[in-house]
Design a protein that fits this description.
By secondary structure, the chain is an alpha/beta fold. The protein contains eleven helices and 13 strands. α3 runs parallel beside α4, α5 runs antiparallel to α6 and α9 runs parallel beside α10.
Length: 284
């Protein structure tokens, strides 16, 4: 296996088995309830996920913060001292300051190790959209290719990555500054469900509006199926709505372009902004 290390965020929604098998380093973001802080890394911890979503449904005002800089510094120092090059794949810089913080940490710490290489990739995404680039980078590393090849692939791939999602409660997007109050109130009263995409380097854009949850899921899959043009793995992140995610997956399986589907629950930090029952589909 090539010697470079792959680092990402807890917002990448990676399966625990994949993280452990591929030796992926995950920096946790933080969610805050009351005066208590919790790690955003809950990979494989079903009970912890259940407790978080129960709290989110009751409180609805849980806040978040980016990765701890000191934690990032310690990890980077450790990897560089072990003579490893570092490829960091981060969530969209338009959604969090974590990416730019990591760029600064990598640049500063790497000065002490001039022989080492480091690259930082702004994924322009979140959830398994971000995670899909980590899957790709790990595959390239398994083939024995170098860090430059993985970086080049991720930089090219991120521009082709499609993110489509819908939320059940627009109030969460409003509180995070991504939906206005009038739209949020109207959506709740009229049961209007909006569909969004992330485009142009991570900008949020409304791409659909329907009435009712079932129609939202149908429209979400229709938009995704229409966008598929080549055989690939499809990624689905969901906010504690496994049955709805399975319905979406079943519809996606009808396409000849869908080779495999990877489905994961949405991490706590991402879910704080999209709310319970949100569903995202990621593809190229």
């Amino acid at each position: 296996m090539s010697s470079f290390a792959i680092v990402t965020d807890s917002t990448a929604n990676l399966p625990k088995a994949f993280i452990e098998k591929q030796g992926i380093y995950v920096l946790p973001l933080t969610w805050i309830s009351g005066e208590k802080e919790y790690s955003g890394s809950m990979e494989g911890e079903r009970e912890a996920y259940a407790l978080f979503y129960e709290k989110l449904r009751k409180e609805k005002h849980i806040s978040t913060s980016m990765s701890n800089q000191r934690t990032a510094q310690k990890l980077v120092q450790k990897l560089l001292s072990e003579e490893k090059d570092i490829l960091y794949i981060g969530l969209s810089s338009k959604l969090s300051g974590t990416f730019h913080m990591m760029e600064r940490v990598l640049g500063y710490e790497a000065k002490k190790y001039p022989e080492r290489k480091w690259y930082a990739v702004d994924s322009f995404a979140i959830g398994l959209g971000e995670g899909s680039l980590v899957f790709d980078a790990a595959k390239i590393r398994r083939r024995g290719e170098d860090i430059g090849a993985a970086y080049a692939w991720c930089c090219q791939r991120r521009w082709r990555l499609h993110t489509l999602f819908t939320v059940d409660d627009l109030g969460f997007l409003r509180r995070s500054g991504r939906a206005n109050a009038v739209l949020s109130t109207a959506g709740s009263v009229l049961k209007i469900k909006l569909l969004f995409s992330m485009q142009d380097g991570g900008k949020l854009r409304q791409v659909g509006k329907v009435r009712g949850r079932k129609k939202a899921l149908q429209e979400l899959t229709t938009l995704a199926l229409t966008g598929l043009t080549e055989p690939q793995t499809i990624y689905i992140s969901h906010g504690d709505c496994h049955e709805d995610a399975c319905y979406v997956a079943k519809q996606m399986e009808k396409s000849e372009f869908v080779k495999k589907i990877i489905m994961q629950p949405l991490d706590p930090v991402s879910a704080c902004h999209t709310g319970p029952n949100s569903i995202g589909i990621f593809f190229v």
